[in-house]
Amino acid sequence: MLSYVCLSWVLLVLFTGPTVSESVVMGEVGQDVTVPCHYSVRDRNGITSMCWGRDRCPNSKCSRPIIWTDGWRVTEQHSSRYQLKGDLQRGDVSLTIVNAREADSGIYCCRVELPGWFNDQLINHKVVITKARISTASPHTYTSEQTSAPGSTSESSFSVTRTWPSVSASEAPKTASAPCSGPSDCLDVTANLQNTSVSLPSQQHPEHGLYIGIGSSAALLLILILALFLT
Questions:
Q1: To 5 degrees, how large is the angle CA 90–CA 96–CA 101?
Q2: What domains appear along the chain, each with residue ranges and CATH number?
Q3: 10 Å Cβ neighbour count for 31?
Q4: CA distance 140 to 185
Q5: What is the dihedral of CA 127, 132, 133, 134, to 10 degrees?
Q6: How far apart (Å, rounded) are the C-alpha atoms in residues 159 and 3?
Q7: How far is the CA of 167 from the CAs of 52, 170, 173, 177, 196, in angstroms?
Q8: Cα distance between residue 196 and residue 193, in whole Å
Q9: Over the stretch 34-54, which tens digit does the pLDDT of each residue have?
Q10: pLDDT score, position 85
Q11: Cα–Cα distance between 84 and 92 in angstroms, integer?
Q12: By the 8 A CB rule, do 111 and 125 touch?
């Protein structure tokens, strides 16, 4: 009976395997993503080897291993992008994926090899790497309108009116409204212009004739006085 119970327990352990915990880790492309994994270290004798693999934890070792340690340092490393930045001697064996890519998404196994049969600590992590979110919202534009307050005069409605002094018909220059219709018309216009040019000096200096008349009268008066004295 006892042998039957022991055999059943061994078969159950072999087929079911050790208990495995699972978790989900999210990350973005281009960032460093840390996949956590720890085990308890009471003293130096508690430091043990472990491995990381790119698949679910098998019954032993790691499938598609990417990094191994002997408990004190890294002994095997598949790529420099997979690093253990924690304190290994304190049981911090978290995996850091440097400059994560979408291809890094998948299942990762952390296996800590503890002494004894079927005592290994197994943790499966589902890592999901997504592209960084980019805002697609269009930028807001703001427009402002300037309005004039009631009672004020806007620049667009302001107008300037210029007034010029009026000119009488007599002062306005006379211009021919149409070209000469014939030779006689042109001769008349030319004669008028000549008469105007000749008469302008006499109109502009009327005082010269007055001075000549006074001088002539004074000369005649002087001649009469001399004649009286002689006679």
A1: 170
A2: 18-130 (2.60.40.10)
A3: 13
A4: 78
A5: -170
A6: 117
A7: 109, 8, 10, 18, 21
A8: 5
A9: 999 999 999 999 999 999 999
A10: 96
A11: 8
A12: no
Question: Cα–Cα distances in Å, from 18 out to 13, 14, 56, 58?
Answer: 7, 9, 13, 10
Tokens of residue 133, six digits: 């979110």
107, 56 Cβ separation under 8 angstroms = yes
Number of other residues whose CB lies within 10 A of the CB of residue 118 = 14
Residues facing 175 on adjacent strands: none
Q: In the numeric block, which tokens belong to residue 195?
A: 């008469």
Element spanning 66, H or E: strand 65-69
Q: How many residues does the chain have?
A: 231
- pLDDT, one tens digit per residue, over 132-174 is 877 555 544 444 444 444 444 444 444 444 544 554 444 444 4
Give 117's contacts (C-beta < 8 A, 6+ positions apart): none
Q: What is the DSSP string of 185-198?
A: HHHHHHHHHHHHHH
Helix (H) or strand (E) holding 126: strand 121-130
